[in-house]
Structure formats: C-alpha cells, structure tokens
Design a protein that fits this description.
Blueprint (H helix, E strand, L loop, with lengths): L24 H24 E2 L5 E7 L19 E7 L4 E2 L5 E7 L1 E3 L3 E7 L18 E7 L2 E3 L6 E7 L1 E3 L3 E7 L3 E2 L19 E4 L7 E3 L6 E7 L3 E5 L5 E4 L5 E12 L4 H7 L3 H21 L12 H17 L4 E12 L2 H121 L2 H13 L27
Parallel strand pairs: 13-14
Antiparallel strand pairs: 1-4, 2-3, 2-5, 6-9, 7-8, 7-10, 11-15, 12-14, 12-16, 17-19, 18-19, 19-20
Helix pairs in contact: 3-4, 5-6
Length: 507
C-alpha cells in the first residue's frame, strides 16, 4: 500500500501472504458495463429473436391487451390479446417476449394443377343464404390461390385444395354461376326473368363458354361442365331403329348412322335447355328423324325401298330435313347414312327370287362372253407368235445393216483421223522451221546491235578523251594502277621504265 492507501496495480506477495490481484476502480466499472452488455445481447439474441427459416413463417401472439370476445379467435383489432392475422416471412425480427409470443409454421404450397380455396375463420357471421364471405366476415373467400407458395396464417384461414379445371381439346366448358341474383326473383326487370342464360352477376348458366385449356376457378362459385364439340355417331339399330308404314301398309325398319356435332356458340344454351349428349339424341334428333320417316315413308310402296331410286332419295331427304330442323337448336348434322332397310318377308322373298333369276341370266351371259373371249384370246395368241417371228427376222436384218454401217463409219473416221494428223504434223514442221529461222535472225540482230552498241560506247569514250591512245592509257591506268605495289627502275633511257614512256603526258 502506498501513502494514499491505494493498492498498487500489481500483485504484492511475500513468503507469508497469498498472491492478490488489485484492479483500479475504473476497470471494475467497465467490467460491469461489459457484463451488462453481454447479458443484454444474450437476452435479445436468444429470447427476443424471431428468425423463420426457409419455407417457414412466424405467427405472432399478443400476450398483453384486452381479452377477445367470446367466440373470437383472432385479434384483428389493435390492443387485443391473442393471435394476430399477419405473419412474419423469412427473415430476422426482434420482439419483446413479455408482450409477444410466436410459433413457426410451414408456408402454404399449392402444387401445379391444383387450386387453393381460402376459408376465413374469423370475422362476422355470414348473412342467411350467403355462401361467399365479404371483407371482414368469416366464410369462403372468393379469391383463389393459384399454384405457388403463400404465407398464410393457418389460425386465421383454412385452405382446401381442388383440382384445376382442365378443358380437353375439341371440348368447351359450360359455366354455372352459383352466386348472385336469382333469375326467378321478382326484383329483376321483366326481360331478365326466367331466362335460360344469365348475366355475369346473376346465378345460373353463363352464355360465355371456356375454350380448351386450364382454368383456376373457385368451385364454390363456379361449376363447369365439359361439353364435347367433336363429331358424334349415333347408330340407329335395334330399339333405336326407325319404323314406318308404307303406302301399301307394310312395316319397314330403317337402320343407319347419324353423325352430328354441337356448335360452340350454342353449347351453353343447348345443355341447359336439353341436357347432355344422350338427351340431345333422344329429345331432338330421334323425334325429328322418326316423324320425317313416318311422313315420307308413307308416300311410296314397300318394293320401292328395296330397288330403285327411292332408297337413295329417302336418305338424302332425311339428311336435309334433320339439318334444317336441328340447326336452330345448335346441333349440326354432318351426315345421315341409311345402311339397311328391312322389309316384310313376303315382299322380300318375291324380290329375292326375281333377283336370283336376274343373276342367273347374267351368269349365263357371262359364260357366253367368256367363251367368246377365250376364242378371241387364242386368235390373238397365234397372231402374236406370227408377229414375234416376223419382228425377230426384221430385227436380225436391221442389226446386220447397222453393224455394216458402223464398220464403214469407224473405218472412215480412222482414215480421216490419219489424214488430219498428217496435215497437223506437216503444219507443225513448217511452224518449227519458221520458228528456227526467226530465232536465228533474232540472235543475229541481237549480236549485231550489241556489237554496234559497244562500238558506239568505245567511240564516244575515245572522243571524250581526245584520241584512242588517251582512252587506252586511261583504261590501262585504271586496271594496272591498283595492282602496282612497288616499282624498281632507273632513269636511264634504256632502263625498265622506258616501256612506260609512250604513256607519259607530253611536256
């Protein structure tokens, strides 16, 4: 200890006292601050942190406030205690655990080809007769959930999944609206009451149909019925065959096939007024086909429906009649084919025997024609053999003439070829001689001109030096001067240097 009774900032010890560590007062203050900060961080991080993971949501529960009224499960007003409708998406949030509690829940995933329908579990009760919830009331929500992921509070909404509406190719969907004003109500104008098709804000069948594709509609609001627009075939046989009395009082049964289709623009009205495809056949097509057959069939005797043009005329008239009568209903008749007309046996046997006799006569006529054809075939075969031998002889003669002409042409071509070759070789030899003479003359001229050019050069150079001797001295000096290294001579007239006297300049 020092004189101010302050412990030193280091440890003091001796042999009799244990070691002690002393800290300044300012260090203790910082220590408590750091401890408080760490405790606050731990409290906030571990007790106040809300962190929904991937594909998770956090549902908040308000712990303080006014208790909910009886029957209410969601705190939809500020200051109420309970589950609030809003959720926290993926992320990090901090809330006071005294005021708030929370739970984690998975997000809502609507798979492909499905539609989700929300049912609100809180709010006011629906009015009597109402099935779709308005804003702030509990019940089925009009808006649907398409395929995807949604963050929805499971305590506030119940989700039911349904199959999406898929209209196949060649079909349409007739839409039935299940909500709205009733077309039978007295509150509608007179022109809108008791109609088969209704407007968009009314309850009933809508005039607009759905084309092929996938649609996401609320099944509690719309009901869709698929109607096939492709060609349909109805076979009139058995109980569905057409029966009528002929002019002579016999009963005739007609079997056939009808091909028809429902028109797109009339699909909604037709299905609502008549029904499905079987109803269209039994209520529209068959009654009109039977009524026409009874009236038209009574105009001719029974025998006319076995042979003659009456059968084909009956088929054509039946098709035209069905097209005319079914078109206003939205049914397009493609064809009406009569496959079989069944007449009574007492008439059919007579016709059958007559037909057998006719066929037997035709058979004998065919046998006679076959015998004639066989004789004609034999004659034609003999003529063919004769013509074939004649053609062979003519062919041999023509072949010999052609071979002789070909040999003559070949030899003529060869002789002409040899003649042309000889002519070309003669012309080539002449050209070679001419070329050699021209080459010799050219070489002669080149040599002459070269010599002349060199002579002219020497003449000009000699003229420039005054005489030929001076030019010769110049050339001599140029060529021998660079090669002379040492000259040993005297000045005697007859010495070795006297040989250069003629080349010395004049004094």
């Amino acid at each position: 200890m020092n004189e101010h009774n302050t412990p030193p900032p280091y440890a003091e010890r001796n042999a009799n006292m244990p070691m002690k560590i002393y800290f300044p007062k300012i260090s203790r203050l910082w220590f408590f601050i750091l401890c408080a900060a760490g405790a606050a961080f731990i409290f906030v991080w571990y007790f106040c942190r809300i962190e929904p993971g991937s594909d998770k949501i956090a549902i908040l529960i308000h712990k303080t406030g006014v208790n909910l009224p009886s029957g209410q499960i969601i705190a939809d007003q500020p200051g109420q205690k309970g589950i609030i409708p809003e959720v926290l998406p993926e992320g990090r949030y901090f809330r006071n655990p005294y005021n708030w509690g929370w739970k984690y829940a998975p997000i809502t995933d609507i798979p492909a080809g499905k539609v989700g329908v929300l049912t609100r579990l809180y709010g006011k009760d629906l009015e009597r007769g109402q099935i779709i919830a308005n804003a702030g009331s509990k019940g089925i929500v009009a808006d649907i959930l398409r395929p995807g992921k949604y963050r929805i509070n499971p305590f506030a909404y119940q989700i039911n999944m349904f199959e999406a509406i898929s209209i196949r190719a060649g079909c349409v969907g007739v839409v039935l609206s299940q909500i709205g004003m009733d077309s039978l109500g007295n509150q509608l104008p007179e022109n809108k009451r008791n109609t088969f098709l209704v407007e968009n804000d009314m309850k009933g069948v809508l005039p607009k149909v759905l084309d092929p594709g996938t649609y996401y509609l609320n099944p509690y609001i719309f009901n869709v019925v698929e109607v096939n627009l492709q060609s349909q075939r109805f076979v009139m046989s058995g109980d569905d065959a057409i029966s009528f009395l002929t002019m002579d009082g016999f009963t005739v049964n007609v079997e056939g096939t009808l091909e028809f289709a429902i028109e797109r623009d009339s699909a909604a009205l037709l299905t609502h007024r008549v029904g499905d495809m079987d109803d269209v056949i039994k209520k529209i097509i068959l009654p009109r086909a039977r009524g026409f057959s009874r009236l038209e069939g009574s105009k001719s005797p029974a025998i006319n429906y076995i042979v003659g043009e009456t059968r084909q005329k009956f088929q054509n008239n039946l098709e035209a009649h069905l097209k005319e009568k079914c078109q206003p209903w939205g049914v397009a008749i493609k064809s009406a084919l009569v496959r079989n007309i069944i007449v009574p046996e007492e008439i059919a046997s007579i016709i059958r025997d007559r037909e057998i006799a006719v066929q037997s006569a035709k058979k004998y006529e065919q046998q006679i024609e076959q015998a004639k054809s066989k004789a004609e075939l034999t004659r034609q075969e003999m003529l063919a053999i004769q013509n074939r031998e004649k053609v062979a002889a003519d062919t041999a003669r023509i072949r010999a003439v052609i071979v002789a002409k070909q040999d003559l042409a070949v030899k003529t071509v060869a002789a002409n070829k040899d003649l042309e070759v000889a002519k070309l070789e003669n012309e080539a030899a002449s050209f070679q001689v001419q070329a050699m003479l021209s080459k010799a003359e050219a070489e002669r001229d080149v040599i002459r001109l070269t010599n002349k050019a060199e002579a002219d050069v020497f003449a000009e150079q000699a003229k420039a030096f005054g005489s030929g001797l001076n030019y010769a001295k110049y050339v001599f000096y140029q060529r021998i001067g660079p090669k002379i290294k040492t000259i040993l001579s005297g000045d005697q007239p007859g010495g070795l240097g006297s040989i250069f006297t003629p080349f010395l300049p004049a004094k």
